[in-house]
Write a structure and sequence with these properties.
Blueprint lengths: L11 E2 L2 E2 L18 H12 L3 H18 L4 H20 L3 H18 L2 H17 L3 H15 L7 H20 L3 H20 L12 H14 L3 H10 L8 H17 L3 H14 L1 H4 L2 H13 L6 H8 L7
Antiparallel strand pairs: 1-2
Length: 322
């Protein structure tokens, strides 16, 4: 039976995805399939911070993923990719339970396909809802397992190095939230070493690596903030150039983490300046529940800041006097 791509004749222009208006299940040639192009397009939307558009596309991909996972290893890998992305989007939307459910499906599909890189992505997705529900130990165990799979070979591929470094960063951030500074530093140092190693052995395929010196610096901001090292976190933030981060989502994340750290330091004006950068990088990021909460905290302390009231209205934040 011939299976069709979910996007079919849809065109991908940068981060914009156009889907055919006819339902993907309407044709008679069988269920649609998630293609590599489909998954790449969906990931591009996430990287661009186009969460509304991704949310409209995702139900089609999720429906197709349920068929894909039963086909074969390559299909299971794509299904895992869809569910991992769904988990990441749910985190952005503040839907922790849904994020955990999608991550569970991604993990099962990743184990079915047997690909350590796919398993690592699913483990990283699962770590966030686990942390948010107080299960940091379980998150660390899952990340350690994924890391062990990736580093089991003497000469890992660039893709495995990339995944191992990103798992190490997620583990470092998780350890910091669990107030385990030695473990957090160990994982963060390993990620930085892996980033240097990866720079000498770049990817052969067209997909750029996630791991880089900029990515490591970004994570260092959050790691040191959770450890209570505010000055160290801000030092990493000052050294990080936005141009080191290749996507709008990552640039917004860096500004958000810096804003959180500046709030901890009592610098509300500086924190608001960072929130402006969040909106500049990816407007949808500024409307996330957790970022709106930062806006509200700033407004509690400095309601007089120029432009804050208008910013709060644009992003839907609840502030004093509303």
């Amino acid at each position: 039976m011939q299976r069709r791509s979910v996007l079919g004749a849809g065109a991908v222009l940068g981060a914009a995805v156009v889907v055919r208006p006819t339902p993907v299940w309407a044709a008679a040639e069988g269920p649609a399939a998630v293609s590599n192009t489909d998954l790449a397009a969906a990931r591009a939307l996430f990287a661009a911070g186009a969460y509304d558009r991704l949310g409209r596309l995702l139900p089609l991909l999720l429906d197709a993923a349920g068929h894909e996972v039963r086909q074969g290893p390559a299909d299971a890998a794509r299904a895992a990719g869809v569910w991992t992305l769904a988990s990441q989007l749910a985190v952005k939307q503040g839907r922790t339970a849904a994020a955990g459910a999608y991550a569970g499906l991604a993990g099962a599909a990743a184990r079915r396909c047997g690909n350590a890189v796919v398993l690592a992505a699913a483990a990283r997705a699962a770590a966030t809802p686990l942390r948010r529900t107080g299960r940091t130990r379980q998150a660390l165990d899952l990340l350690q397992e994924a890391h062990d799979h990736l580093t089991a070979f003497r000469r890992p591929t660039p893709a495995a190095l990339d995944a191992a470094g990103m798992v190490a960063l997620t583990a470092a951030y998780t350890a910091a939230q669990a107030h385990r500074p030695a473990l957090a530093e160990e994982f963060a140092d390993e990620a930085e070493d892996t980033a240097l190693r990866l720079a000498r052995h770049p990817h052969a395929d067209s997909r750029p690596p996630q791991l880089s010196a900029g990515q490591c610096a970004l994570y260092r901001i959050g790691i040191h903030r959770h450890l209570g090292h505010v000055d160290t976190a801000l030092a990493h933030a000052r050294r990080l150039e936005a141009t080191q981060l290749p996507t709008a989502e990552r640039r917004a994340r860096a500004a958000t983490d810096t804003a959180r750290t500046l709030i901890d330091a009592g610098d509300m004006a500086g924190a608001f300046a960072q929130l402006r950068l969040v909106e500049l990088a990816a407007p949808a990021e500024a409307r996330r529940p957790s970022v709106r909460a930062l806006t509200a905290r700033i407004a509690e302390h400095r309601p007089d800041l120029a432009g804050l009231a208008a910013y709060a209205r644009r992003t839907g934040a609840n502030t004093p006097g509303q």
